[in-house]
Amino acid sequence: MASPTIDFIIRRIASLQDDDGLFPAIRRNDQLGYRRPDTNVFFTAITVFTLQYLRQNVSPTSQSLIDQMIERARRAYPIFRNKDGLNTYNFWPTQPSRHFPNGYLFRRFEHFRIPDDIDDTAMVYLTSEPSSADTLWLKDKLSQHANGSQRHQIRNTFPDYRHLRAYSTWFGKNMGVDFDACALSNMLYCIYRYNLPLNQHDADSLYYLRSIVETGRYRSEPFQCAPHYARTSLIVYHIVRLMAAFPIPDLAFIRERLIADAYQELGQATNTVEQCMLATALQRLGESRPSILLDTIESDVKTFHFFIAGLLTAYQQPWLRRFADRSIVQMRWHCEAHSWALVAEYLMIDLLND
């Protein structure tokens, strides 16, 4: 197809939003021949998060469509709110609870019911209008579940990070502490966006992000650095998005390393959406935006996956963790609407430079 316009993409995304205000997603494991429609808040929230920052630079017609999508998404958020009425959010519906929706096996086992998490919570807060009291409550809640709090101690990270009092991905009492660079970037974005007071947990979370880049671990062991995203390109995109939005001295030192690595990742990427995402990151780092051919975009938006879930990731036992990074024990999530939003984000750079 010819290179799509911003207005075309926004109309396309709007057409994908369902009657409940959600953008459809698919979870799959191609090795097992597994493919199911998935009802989750994550892709809806991150799609409107991307669109709301494009809004001021698009046509009045597209602005109206974005406003409608955001409003419809917000109406869907309550079904994902904490089951006890707290102001945290779950990946799957909690009212009523539906983990692994549209499935046949995993939904039958309580073991696969996941607690609320910082990723979904951050994105819901960033695409709604929380009160000051709610954001301060969240900051305190984060501290209660950070590593080293309430006897929570991480075991599944590099030994030299186990002392860090960084935020865990999960809010659950019985879930092991988990560090994920992309989820941390999203929650830190929320903390900076609402100008919340910074503490040791924030400092250690930023240290984690800086260190995995400085040491090169995010390239050599991306699953260990971000087990729910597990690709260097996605870690680059999330950290750079945070850096571009806020002046954070702790991350300034890794800018040149991120630029070099983003160019290397771009040279290796085969999916057009992933290429767009890396090109956007490079532009945010002050580089001239690389030109991406969009000839295969129609097929690539349907196959690009942004998020994974490892069925063994939550286990602390080393012998199980040894297999956690294998694709056969992972689900991959993709969402056409969000993939198009990433393409629109890339195309917006040309519009701003005209």
Key descriptive features of the protein:
354 residues; globular; 4 strands; mainly alpha
Q: What are the secondary-structure elements, in order, as H or E?
A: HEEHHHHHHHHHHHHHEHEH
Number of helix segments? Answer: 16
Low-confidence stretches: none
**Content of β-strand:** 5-15%
Backbone structural class: mainly alpha
Shape: globular
- Please give the share of residues in helix: 40-55%
CATH architecture: Alpha/alpha barrel
Mean pLDDT: 90
Report how far the terminal alpha carbons are from each other: 23 Å
Question: Total strand count, please?
Answer: 4
Please give the CATH class: Mainly Alpha
How many domains in all? 1
Largest sheet: number of strands, sense, barrel closure: 4 strands, antiparallel
CATH fold category name: Glycosyltransferase
Computed over alpha carbons, the radius of gyration is: 19 Å
Strand neighbour order, sheet with most strands: 2-1-4-3
How do the helices and strands line up, and which of them pair or pack?
Layout: H1 6-16, E1 25-29, E2 34-38, H2 42-54, H3 60-76, H4 118-126, H5 132-144, H6 181-193, H7 200-214, H8 217-220, H9 222-225, H10 232-245, H11 249-252, H12 255-268, H13 272-284, H14 297-303, E3 307-310, H15 318-321, E4 330-334, H16 336-353
Antiparallel strand pairs: 1-2, 1-4, 3-4
Helix pairs in contact: 1-3, 1-16, 2-3, 2-4, 2-16, 4-6, 6-7, 6-10, 10-12, 10-13, 12-13, 13-16
